[in-house]
Amino acid sequence: MDTAYLKFYGTLSLGSSISWDIVAGDDCSGIIAKALARTMQLDFVDQACKNLLIIKNGISLGSKHLPHLFSLCKNSQGNQAKTVLCQLPPAEDNDALALQLMKLSLVFCNQAEASGGLLIHGALAEKNGAGVILAGHGDAGKTTASRRLPPPWKSLSDDCTLIVRDSEGSYHAHPWPTWSTFMYGGTGGSWDVQYNVPLQAIFILKQSTKDHAEQLGQGQAVCMLNETAGQAWYAVENDLDDQKRQTMSLQRFSNICELTKNIPVHLLHISRDGAFWEEIDRAAPSKLKSCL
Question: In degrees to the nearest 10, what's the CA dihedral of 82, 22, 111, 261?
């Protein structure tokens, strides 16, 4: 491509090992790059060995382009960074822009999963520097639960969380944008996606009349998390061919199996008005209690 016009819009750093520069290849795609940088609260950071995401005016993210784009998102060899070119048409409205931003964000998530991470359909909450995820399907009550958390709890995201694994094997959780808030006349928002907290536990929500938490065995936890994580990728399900979808699904399943060996997973029965956060404290293992 012609590199005469390249404009930087921000740097995305995830955990301690993944970093991307967001670049526009022309004025039209600059609108999309600017919206992505604004939503993710990105600044430009001058550091070595960053991956490069170039957004350029052109074809849409479709079935022929997306598998090739995702195939580039693998672990870097040594210190070698990669360049991913993503060609997009101008967004006709806010709904189309939100879908483009969501799919672009999945490029980052795909590389994170290739490095042992996981994008999960779950809200991220923090208390005293420790992170827990409230996971579940679309109507499980993640947003409502996030809004009900009292201080010193902080709600960092209410729909999706990106888990990354660092070089030492520790898991860190990043808040991820709620892209649906940009659609159907919504005003959108912004999230500090580079902020992260050490992940201490995951709670899968189940609506109930009484608050109660029970720790899940690894097999049950893997099955439930696999379903929840798969929901986070619904926007590109139809864009992937069968082979790429299978490859990504197997990688995700392997990551979940490893995650559940290190991070406790609970089923959290949650009522409409109860103090469910107290059940989180009770169910927390000793390492979580020391952080919370």
Answer: 130
CATH at residue 275: 3.40.50
Higher-pLDDT residue of 58 and 147 is 147
**2 lies in a domain?**
no
Q: Which domain holds residue 87?
A: 7-114
Q: Is 194 helix (H, G, I), strand (E, B) or coil?
A: coil
Task: Kindly tell me the burial class for residue 218, based on how many C-beta atoms sit within 10 Å of its own C-beta (0-12, 13-18, 19 or more).
Answer: middle
Q: Which two tokens stand for residue 169?
A: 């094997």
Number of domains in the chain: 2
In 3D, which of 91, 81, 113, 87 has the Cα closest to residue 229?
113
Structure tokens at 174: 């990043």
Nearest in space to 21 (alpha carbons), one of 29, 13, 11: 11
Whether 38 and 173 share a structural domain: no
Ordered alpha helix ranges (H), the chain: 27-39, 66-71, 94-114, 142-148, 218-231, 242-262, 276-283, 286-291
Percent of the chain residues past pLDDT 70, beyond the cut: 86
Backbone angles phi, psi at 126, to 5 degrees: -125, 145
Can you tell me the distance from the alpha carbon of 84 to that of 290, in angstroms, rounded to the nearest whole number? Answer: 42
Q: How many CA atoms lie within 13 A of 159 on its CB side?
A: 14
The DSSP code sequence of 20-72 is EEEEESSHHHHHHHHHHHHHTT-B----SS-EEEEEEESS-S-TTTHHHHHHT
The pTM of this model reads 0.89
The mean pLDDT value for 21-48 works out to: 88
CA-based end-to-end distance of the chain: 50
